[in-house]
Design goal:
By secondary structure, the chain is mainly beta. It has a domain at 2-40. The protein is built from 1 helix and 2 strands; from the N terminus they run αββ. Strand 1 (25-29) and strand 2 (36-40) form a beta hairpin.
């Protein structure tokens, strides 16, 4: 949880997406050793002017996050 708390300040401010998609999008925050990649998926009814609950899914392992079928 401590590592997760360190990531929050590295995230860029929320900006409205020009094209709303419910596909999983890869994003990057920070740079160099402090950089972090994460996956983002917006709900299909997403509107930038509305507040939404956030679900963070953390994984542990040697594989990168993503869809592994």
């Amino acid at each position: 949880m401590d590592d997760f708390i360190k990531i929050i300040p590295l995230l860029p401010p929320a900006e409205p997406e020009t094209k709303i998609s419910d596909d999983v999008m890869q994003r990057k925050a920070g740079s160099g050793r402090n950089g972090v990649s994460y996956l983002l998926q917006l709900p299909p009814e997403y509107r930038p002017s509305r507040n939404y609950p956030v679900l963070f899914v953390l994984h542990q392992g040697r594989r990168s996050a993503g869809r592994h079928d």
